Amino acid sequence: MESLTYIRARTGLGVLRRTDSTKLIIALGRSSTVNSILSSPGYVRDKSSDLVRRMLCGLSFGGIMEESETRAPAMPAWRGISAKVFEELGLISLYGSSPDVKLLCLQRFIRLFAYGLSTLVLVAYLEALGNTKTEIGLFMTFTLVGDVCISFLLTLFADALGRKATLALGAALMVASGIVFAISGSYWVLLVGAIVGVISPSGNEIGPFKAVEESIIAHLTEPYNRGDIYAWYAMLGFAGAASGLVCTGWVLQHSTQSRHWDIIPSYRAIYFGYAVIGALKLVLSLLLTQSIESEKKQQWANEGQGETVPLLNGSTEEPAKRGIRSLLPDISKDSVPVVIKLCLLFALDSFGSGLAPLSWITYYIQSKFNVEEGMLGTIFFVSQVLAAASMIVASSLAKKFGSMNAKFPSKTQP
User: Fold this and answer.
1) pTM of the complete model
2) Mean pLDDT across the stretch 156-171?
3) Is the domain of 65 the same as that of 167?
4) What single-letter DSSP state applies at residue 58?
5) Full residue range of the structural domain in which residue 67 is found
6) Which of 97, 153, 204, 269 is least surrounded by Cβ atoms within 10 Å, i.e. has the fewest?
7) How many helices (H) and strands (E) does the chain have?
């Protein structure tokens, strides 16, 4: 393996330069790791290995040492401890991830922030428009059913249509649904806007975003860093939802008590903000690069540009699938049982969550205890922050006990 590529693989860093000793000292943590890398079978001396060797042997903030010195100077204890803490928390993996992965994590925060805005007011808004609780329950049911159908179709063909295009389309639907909720009071218009657009009745993920983004992260991240990235991806989602909930609560309280707005215009202002956040997510989706696309999509793009490579006999290989089947994702036979088990597991989890959606819980607490909007948002902010805190240690536990055992602590073996 080419030396620079090998060092990136061992450290999880991006492009290495002569001035990157600070990044290396954080990633490697101690000089013994340097020596193990330099002497490992995977490190092959090539035209770039002299620079790499001098960078690794010169792990100091002062500059690069001479190659004749085989050991780096002793690192202060606090630096080694901090590097270990950063590694356990997954910060090194997140720091060394590609710009596209960082953009996806930012989009996750922004999207869940918007969902938090809507969740706190959805039931109260529909009731303020004169709808009964039965109509509100049916509204949420039809919204989720419509989302399942649309999201399934979008994610099923996402690799063929383009992951970037799918994410951008989902963001555009967020904008459309936010505008519909902000300007219309008709039950049926709002229902169509919620089904076709992206409105989360439960405060959880909805739309094609999560499935597409997680596949992109798996595509762009090495297996040994993937758990760290997923942990921060999930944590930023909880943090975004918490921020959206607390912002909605205090904005509503300020608009109704200090500004003396009526309650319905106050709710509609929240959905205007929802549309603005959707527009911001659309911009971030368009900033993603071509590297997020699946190998199938990139191959088709190259073929469209006449960049196919002929075989030795001068002919090109025919695709194995044609027509509509060529648009479907490729799943190996070995993966099918695992996918089915995970789908059943997630379905059971979602069924339990559907019995008590967050939007109904917020409505119940507000009507039962007469809690003001600001305090209501703060209550659920704290609950979401506590959930986010658990995500920080999730990756470290998964590395130690395994992903499944970390998910189900009762099965963890000492």
Assistant:
1) 0.74
2) 90
3) no
4) T
5) 3-86
6) 153
7) 21, 0
